[in-house]
Amino acid sequence: MSDEREVLDVDVLFVGGGPAGLAGALHLTRLIEQHNEAAASNGGVPLDEPFVAVVEKADVLGAHTISGAVVDPRALDELMPDWKQQGAPLVPVTSDELRFLTKSGGMGLPHPPWMKNKGFSVGSLNSVVRWLGDKAEDAGVNVFAGFPASELLIEDERVCGVITNDKGVSANGEHKSNFEPGVEIRAKLTVLCDGSRGHLTKGLVQHFGTEGKNPQVYETGVKETWEVPGASAQTGRVVHTMGWPLGLGIFGGSFLYWIGEDRITLGLVVGLECEDPCFDIHEEFQRFKTHPFVAQLLKGGTRVAYGAKSLPAGGCGPCRSPGWTAACWRATAWAPSTWPGSRASTARSSRACCRRRPRCPR
Predict the structure, then answer these.
(1) Distance (Å, whole) CA 212 – CA 232
(2) Mean pLDDT for the chain?
(3) Among 171, 214, 233, 296, which is least packed by CB within 10 angstroms?
């Protein structure tokens, strides 16, 4: 079979079908629609309908997104003012708790101002991503699931798009009988939304040497979703904990969110700078579920999903002024947690990107 790649030309390419990529693509499409409507009424110059595409590595949108999230609704208010009427799979926070756990007990703590969730919403990011994908496709965005981008196209120090994974390659790199070369997707503007520590963003920063003086730091999150009879009676409840099972000197904490339909999503998040080489976050998460407070909440329930992921945890100035052209980089956290300083919304930053001229930097 020929190794020649198929070439797909698009105007704007969003790499990553998470909240950031989908919100950015949807907002860009709507901005162009609003511009053309205004141009038709006042005699202005309309824009040609662009080919806006989103590529996502998972076979279906949301397949790699299982976490629950407390969401600051300001981003959705700007992106889609009628998001509640549009059926967004989010419920308002009804109660908010912060607890310090000991091995067999614990106590409630007062909330720091930055961890108060009044007026926020809670839900499953998996459901939110699938809902956003439907809205983006309804608006004319071309969403390609099951197309993992393997490398950037950089020509004359300009980002020109991406190449998707080859298919039908054996473990030792040999082409099998069903080999199919990846697609070369060329774009006038490429927006990287490839998640926490995404390999394309890492390659871009390394290629252009734009890492800042205070690089991004990360955490690891282990998460599960449980179906517990009667849990829907507490829909909207939010609990964050600190303390046990983590020892002194280990930064981290846990969360439990009641997201409706008898489902509770819970997880343990720990900083990657832990100095204990024997520390195992998966083992500690299993211990966390044995705590009397947590065990009682999960009693009679069934685990329906689980996973783990890295999270961005900070880094003041992780990237200098970008030195690349025809590309933008979006942050990774769409307000999924309530740690200090984590309220920044990728949906909002993606919209801000769409308001600027289509190039980075200025």
Answers:
(1) 45
(2) 84
(3) 171
